[in-house]
Amino acid sequence: MYQKKRDKRSIQSSDWIYEALKQLMTEKDYSQITITEIVNTANIGRTTFYRNFDSIDDVLRLRCLDAFSHFRAYCIDYYLLNPLESRTFLKPFLRYWYEHSEIIELLVKAHRENIIKECLAAEVDFFIQSSTIKENEIICTHLNYFIEMRIANCMSILTEWIKNGKDIPPDTLAEIIELQVKESYKFTLFI
Fold first, then answer.
1. Where are the domains of the chain?
2. CATH architecture group of domain 8-54
3. Which residues of 58-72 are buried (b: 16+ CB within 10 A; e: fewer)?
4. In 28-142, which ranges are continuous DSSP H helix?
5. Cβ–Cβ < 8 Å for 52, 17
6. In 3D, which of 104, 106, 112 has the Cα closest to residue 157?
7. Which pTM does this prediction carry?
8. What is the spatial distance between Cα 169 and Cα 183, in angstroms, rounded to a whole number?
9. DSSP 130
10. What would the pLDDT profile of 109-165 be if each residue is shown by its tens digit?
11. How many Cα neighbours within 13 Å face the side chain of 121?
12. Nearest to 96 by CA among 123, 62, 57
């Protein structure tokens, strides 16, 4: 686990460690990177690494959690500015990650999509708890399945989009997905 300290020195050390890991990921496969290489690249002591993190995954996890924290704030602002779109999640989701995808790209490259899923699950849960969806008895009867379905859909869309170099503008992709979902109800689906 990471040690989320907010003093200036810890924040700076965490940033150096992240930047060193990011640089190393351009040079070699994530699975081949060692803590020794990270501390040497960051020009810090091993103790500094372990004061902030327990593992290399934790470096990415902390950065991902921070990004999702910013995403939440972005969504709150988005819904305040666009109250008629308060029931949509995909459009602000894609808009945010279009501009802030560095950590997602690194996690996909490192084959650590599970970290994205952990962070996304917390955000989906937050949005569901703060939405009117709780009033829908059909969904709420087995809310855990609804949440997992939403997470799986968002994860699949996001990771495929990242793998394709964000080749479709976010609003266009959101519209395409909405149309596909509407059209899919016309056919028998294998689930």
1. 8-54, 82-184
2. Orthogonal Bundle (1.10)
3. bbbbbbbbebbeebe
4. 35-42, 46-52, 56-81, 90-99, 102-109, 113-129, 137-141
5. yes
6. 104
7. 0.84
8. 21
9. T
10. 999 999 999 998 888 777 666 665 555 555 566 777 877 888 899 999 999 999 999
11. 12
12. 123
